Amino acid sequence: MNRSPVIPAKAGNRVFIPSSPRAIPSSPRKRGSRSKQSWIPAFAGMTRRWISVFVPMTIFLCLFPVLTYATMPVIDYTAISKMTQEYQKLTELYKNAESQLEQEKQLVSDAEGHYGFGVFENSINDLKQRQWSPDTWDDTLQGLSGGNPERYQQLMDEYKKSHPVLSSSDYEKGATENQSKTYAQSIAVNRAATVNASYAFNDIKQHLQNVHDISSKIDQSTNTKAAVDLNSRLNAELAYISVQELKMLTLINQQLANQQSSEISESSDNSKFNTLPDA
Q1: pLDDT tens digits along 189-229
Q2: What is the rounded CA–CA span in Å between residue 177 and residue 185?
Q3: Distance (Å, whole) CA 60 – CA 54
Q4: CB contact at 8 A, 236 and 122
Q5: Which of 42-51, 108-117, 124-133 has the lowest mean pLDDT?
Q6: If you write DSSP's letter for every residue of 220-267 in order, what string do you get?
Q7: How do the domains of the chain map onto residue ranges?
Q8: d(C-alpha 46, C-alpha 85), whole Å
Q9: Residue 233 near residue 214 (C-beta atoms within 8 A)
Q10: Do 33 and 27 form a contact (C-beta atoms < 8 A)?
Q11: CA 160 to CA 143: how far, in whole Å?
């Protein structure tokens, strides 16, 4: 370790003792005596600073594309193509489902509504006109009428005029009691069958007119519901006709039964006559 020389101090004077030889001021240089190579250290410092900035930046720029591509996802074009095809299929399925939905909405719309075909030529008054016959067979034999009493009574009067018969009391004068009962029963059955058959025959024209009027509404069926209602109304009219046919078959059976009853009564009377003693 270098030590500074000791210089004796004089009284009243301050003495500066430097701590190191560098602290001793050098003799002043003359103006213009600066060394020509003083720029070299400055240039070297600036070069170091430039290198410290340029080199890291160059390295970063060189590595940036690599880092960028390293962070990007791997693109599978085959998978993308399959996904595109699946998307197209799903789009087609969606369009088909949407079309089916619209068709179902149209079907629902076609199945709704009220078009008045149920009461067309089928009102309560029309029903009463169809219920012209008596409610029971006994009422029919007694000459009672049904829903159209005026027309039924008119037919009864026409039958009496066109089929003159003896009264039961007059018939008993020349016949037995059983024959008289059979005679009265036959008159009642024949009258009921004739009157009902006449009424049903005359009513056929009205049924034909109803069927024609109903069928003329076919072109007015705007949708499925209207067509179904119209078809149901036509079936109802055919059902009315079938009921009238059933009624006529019943009358035929009643006539056959009455004819057989007359034969039985006649056979009974013959049997009684044969058992009488000879005179």
Answers
A1: 888 888 888 888 888 888 888 888 888 888 887 788 888 88
A2: 12
A3: 10
A4: yes
A5: 42-51
A6: G--SHHHHHHHHHHHHHHHHHHHHHHHHHHHHHHHHHHHHHHHHHHHH
A7: 117-273
A8: 63
A9: yes
A10: no
A11: 11
